[in-house]
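Sorry to interrupt, but I need a hand with the structure work. Please put the record directly below this note.
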Amino acid sequence: MESLPPEEIAAVFAARFPDPLSAQQVIAQVGLPRERQPGWTAALPALAWWIETIRLLAAGAVGPDWPSRLETAAAAFPQSAAAGDESQSSTAGEQIGVAIGNVSAPSGQATGVNNGTINFYAGHEVPRRPPAFLPVAEHLASWLAPDAIHHHRATLVGRESQLRRLLDDLDPVGERVRVVLVTGPGGRGKSRLALEALRRAADRWPEVPALVLQEEATLDGIALAELPDGAASILVEDVHKRSEAHLLSLLAQAKKTPGTVLILTTRGLHHAAVNQAVHRAGLDGDRDVIELTTLDLRAAQMLVDELVADGPPLPDVFVEHLARVGCDCPLVAVVAVELARRDKLAPVPLALDQGFRDEVLLAFSDEIAGRVPEGIDQPTATRFLKYVCAIAPFRVNDHDLYDKIATLAKAPPEDLVTIRHAFREAHVLVEAHGQAWVRPEIVADEVLARAAAVGGHDSGFALRVWRALSETSSRWSLVANLAEVSWRLSETDGPDIFEPVWLDVVAQIDLTDLVEIHAFLTRATILAEVQPTRLFSLLDQLLAMLTPVQRPLGMHDLAARQVEKALDQAVPLLARCVAAKPALLAGALDHLCALALVDGRPVHQTPDHPVRLVTERLTTMDRPGSVTAARTAIEKVEAWSAKPDPLDAVRTPLFALESLVAKSAMSTVWHRDGIKLLPYLISPDKTADLRRRIRTLLIREGTGPSLRRTCEAVDLLGAALHEPAQYVGMTVTLDNILAWESEDLATLGAMSEIAEAATEPLVRRRLRDQVSWHATRARSQAVRTAALTLVTELDEHPEDDLTAALLGAPDVLLPSRRGIPVPTGGTPRADEDLGIRAEQRWQALATMWATVATALWAEHDAAGIIETLNERLRKIDQVQPAERAAPGARPLLQHLCQAWPDRLRDLANAAIGLADGPLDDYLYVVFDAWARHDSDTFSLAIPTLLHGRSGVRRAAARGFTLGWSELDTRFEMIQIEALRAGDPDLRDQLAAGTAPQLRRDPAGTAQLLADVARDAPWGITQALQAAGNYDLEAWGGTLDNEAALAILNLTQLIGWDDTNIQCLVASIARRLPAQVLTALTALGIEDSRAPDVVGLPEALDQHPTEIAAWLRRLTLTDLRPWTLLPGLVLTVLGSRPTDGAELALVDVVETAELKQLARLLRGLRQCDGLVIARPNFVSAVLARIGAAPPTELTDEIDARLRDMLHPTFWSLSRPGEAPQELVYHREQTAERARDEALPVETKAFYMSGLKWLEAAIAAETKTGDDE
């Protein structure tokens, strides 16, 4: 007998029943119906599904005899071949016998599900998975074997600083990082360094397990379950070969386990992809990156000397050359010595040419290929190895792929099976997590390079293997491998073997098939690194075909979303191509600008937003070549600015200059403690020429015809004027600021040129906003005086006052300087309290609006005022079309209406005659003033307004929300008529204005609104809230039965998603419980989900009879989906049912049929506190099943009742602490177990639950010291 966790048992059953149809059918036969089984989705594959299911069974879901039931069900099911292994083809009944022993929660599981350790008996031997993680000493044993060609027997040399750094990262006393990335080319010694550090860490800190993930292991839930609860140091080699999903699981484990450090080795080419996974796991700030550079010659010589010391002497010239090659690739030195001693490599001058490294690796690959059984010739094995290297990693069970390889290798399929097995046994071919590849990776590189190029020429192998395998599942792996080997060959002036393959790839890709494009771009990251020009060319074609979509998109714009998905993949690849080949910058900027102009998504919330790619990755000033890149960006902006902006543009091309006018910035830098944002100052001297060119460009745009570009130019000049930002971790001195004095004066000169040329008040106001701070607070006296001079000049334009009033943002620190001369000799620097204080802002605003209103009436008639306001608002809308761009428009209109009420009709008529525009958003102010001043004329005008142009209709409908129906009965009649027969687009606003009617006649108004409820859910919700003075719970209590029922029916039509509506429904439930319960069920069935109703359990507490009747009806109804029943019950009863709910439940338990009782308990599972809080309910259930003859139904009811003792979930807790949900359940259960007033059976029930809870808490609080 051996005790196995659920994961082990699940692995066996997942192999026998890997599909949802067979698996769910078997478990249904065990007694767990499908509605209670875990959901089967792409995110929960077969093994994970079986683990969750076995845990449910072990927790008592179907009773204690579940193992025998499972064995019987498996044996009775038709034979199911194991996935991917023909050797496991016997039936489940022949192989599996299961019996439960002791059930307890396994250690280290804070997953929130009920777990069990199960005794597992096998009629035949059940294959055990080898451990996924081995202690470092055990893992190193094979690498230290004396007969190993590739070994770690030699002393680690030349890596002392990296070793110290890695040991610092692993030190449990200090602040340990969570992730250490060790990067470098193949054969550079990444694994050797990591293993040495891990070995020393294990010796130094034996209390911290030092583990290595085995290359053949699958990084799944079973593997993760092996990890200790506490701190550990874990090495994963060649992490780029692991799937992102598995890597993310491991990263999540490390993140939630304090003290755990992951060491991940990866090739530099895959660094970006691994970084992305670390970023997605939220570990950006908890990582260190150690990049292995070449060994110095002294260290390489020390390595070679040690390698050759223990054995027959080798020629000096061979040893010398070996040291030089070992600088770049220590693995070559290790392998060469071993091969030379075995007479597999001749240590003679013939080998000592530029291809020495290749000769060594070729000999190694020949040695590998020679490890095949007798009867299989080595050329066949070599051909197989070539093709495997070309497509790796590939799917292990892709039989079609193996057939094609057999054809290419000119060998019978059975020979390939033999070769595959031999390579697996020799650990040359690694098969893990459904994938296969060759190791060591550097040998795979050499095998593929030798196959692709012969004598410095393309052998045709690449095109041949591509055409043969391009239709297989490994096509994109093949493209990536061929692209990479071509890049490696080019580094040594080898042939371009990828060109014909790429031409064929491009010919096969249908750029109009966005699904295919998505599949290709998903795997194209490596191409951006090794074939940037070719990938960029393809992206260029793709982006030329895709019309940029304006973002954000509408909810149902599916076609545009397909385009958006392709763009989201292509855009970051552009930046990667530029990083690999900076010469592509100009073309990338063209595409990124076109996309940025119409991308209205929030920039700072979208990591790969085109704006961020340009300003944060491609044009920053913190890297070599940044000045050249900046010049390119300026040239592109000059070219873009020569063209008009698209009509739907949300910004202008000037955005690309944003990072180039800053005086300080933040750079992403890799430090010992992880990724950090490193602040840096920009040199004025280094950027003087660039800024001069930018100023010239901004003056041109600032004095040009485009108002939006003019304002953006002003904003950029304002940004250029800002002092260097002092980020955390840096100090900006006065000298740093004053070093920019001449540049700042030149910037103010450029702004003065724009001001002198400006005829638009909005431009002058924008300039003033950008300059005013510097006019009083700049550190430089010269800058302060120049800025104050410009402000004074700008304030000498009284025609700008209207624009200032509409913008509604007066400068509270520097009031108008109109008529005030600039002091001679300069101005003293002011503190932040200069001028009007912040608390006086609203007084200043009111004065400004009143003054401007008076001036407008003095200068214009009503039509002139409206014309002037319309023109100003349209100008503002051009620059800032976002909502509330003119917050001063509403109060200014109010002042205009108050100043001359007799002209209100004239103002309204003038506005009505305009075309739709931004003034319409504020037109309701004029209509409201007219309605209150002269209801007779306005009542005649309303019907015309409601049938006018779009903006007028919207303004008139909005006016009803201001209480017009209470002003005049004629207004109410017009409103009702418009609701019934008017424009559906206006119904929301018209309905929102029915609050007075709802207060006065709720039943009648509700019936009226019911006819338009589907068109006006928002408006009716607003009206109900206003009717109840925004306390719908109290208002609901004042309604009589007729009104309450009418309002309930109305809420059913608009839905109960709004929490205020839920409070109203709960209030009505106190008066009409049966009707509310009926409405709740109907809504749940209609939406296929149970609506939430805040406060409903408390509201129904005094109505147990109605609850019981509802529960009986519910248990007789076949509800779909299966989640609806428990959702409805939870909404009505709550997680901890009330006294009234307990009475109802006991009544149902005592009177319902057993079938209905079983269904009731299924629905009660989410009521987490029911069993521990309501022992009378437990007693009633136990008495009921105790009085009935034992059947499957009584067993199910008993199992479900016991399952309810366990919390449905529990939260993660700190090591050594139990989750609070478990502690609470244990305390309540213990109290019930001691209650002498309870029946003996009930006390025993709680005692059994207490044992499970104590075991679960013990498992949760166990630490590494307890092992």
Q: What stands out?
A: Residues 371-496 form one domain. The first strand starts at residue 2 and ends at 4. The first helix runs from residue 6 to 16. The chain is about 60% helix and 5% strand.
